[in-house]
Amino acid sequence: MKKWRHGAIGAIIVGLLAAGSVYAASGGGESSSSAEWWDFFWRCLNLVIFLGLIWYFAGGKIRDFFASRKQQISQEIENMENRKAEAEKELKDVEQRIANLESERQEILEQAKQQGESIKQSIIEKAHSDAERIREQAQQRASQELEQEVSRLRAEMAERIVDSAEKIISERLGAKEQEELIDKYLTKVVLN
Question: How far is CA 123 from CA 42, 109, 111, 126, 139, in A?
Answer without folding.
Answer: 111, 21, 18, 5, 24
